[in-house]
Structure prediction request, 413 residues.
Amino acid sequence: MSTAVLTPPPASSGSFRELWLITIGHSLTHWYPATFYLLLPLIGKELGLSYSQIGLIMTCQYIAAAVANIPGGMVTDTVGRKGVLMAVSLFWVGFPYLLMGFTHSYLMLLACVSLVGFGNSIWHPTAIPTLGQRYPERKGYVLSLHGMGGNVGDACAPVVVGALLTVFTWREVVIMNVVPGLLTSAALLMFLGTLRLTPKRKAAGDHSGEPTQGFAAYLAGVKTLFANRSLVLLSVSSSFRSMTQSALLTFLPLYLANVMGYSSVWVGGCMFALQAAGFAASPVAGHLSDTMGRRSIMMSSMLATAVVILMMALAGGSVWFIVLVAVLGFFMYASRPVIQAWMLESTPRNLGGTSIGILFGAQAIGSAIGPLTGGMIADAFGLLSAFYFLAATIVVANCFIFFMPKDVLKHTS
Prediction:
């Protein structure tokens, strides 16, 4: 089977349309999980679940994502229809939440969130390499805009859903919630349905080519990936970072609702503050990483995250806990686009989807471990003790970044 080297098409007015449409799609892939985090206290109360059982719900979602991310990257690197893949992914993320509105079974709930994990495994290996190849000189900045879409979904969903829950039941909310995803999936098919990564042998503006490379050549390239030191270190570090993030998003609403006594509206407002701060941090970190280097930004943001989480644990139920939530969001989400850009620069360009799939697979493993472990700690020692566990995980994540090779350069060709 013939091989083809990927060449990024030049940025044009059309590519800006693609950037923003992909960013909107990304916001919805985060909207649905962010909605679910706010619903967890209500679902747990209705079904009589322990903290460990609530943690297991999110663990199942991330286990499914861990299993599916590498195959998702393989599909991305060998199938040409990037717009179709993104539309399918978004539908697959949103539709299981509709099914949750009709179930009263804990096991069915676990099955639905597992389907969400499979859907998410296609989005990032498709969208991130596509944007990175279209804007090779500004990977960090462009991926930060894509990341901001995720932050918008994460930030707006708790506010909107918190307000809806004052009028509707959580089951009615998840049914209504499927509409934005369906509309955006249709838009992705309409405007990006023919989007492909263009082989070098074709004209730069021709998006109608065959898959980007032969499968035999793809398999030969994959064998070299797992010997890539940068890929391993970034993946393991990101796994611990995701452990922190997933457990925080699971237990912060529970702490605010069950310990501090906040209503759904106020819980949604606090989660908005966490994500809004991340929205502001993402483009700043992306731009600075393009100019100052990935390592310094990554280490600074992770170290600050550990300090803020530790301060939250010490603040307990005081008003400072809420203030620190917003500060935490600024530093915790700053590193996300930097990791993605660094991964693309550290691995072969024609294996970008698989590299991102491995990265997100590792993140999913960490995300699966975090909620269940945090739930077990909370059941044994109290909910506040879970925050000490989170501070420790982000410190470990930073240690792996310290060992990243210093001679990794940005690849713009």
Notes: DSSP finds 15 helices and no strands in the chain. The CA atoms of residues 28 and 180 lie 8 Å apart.
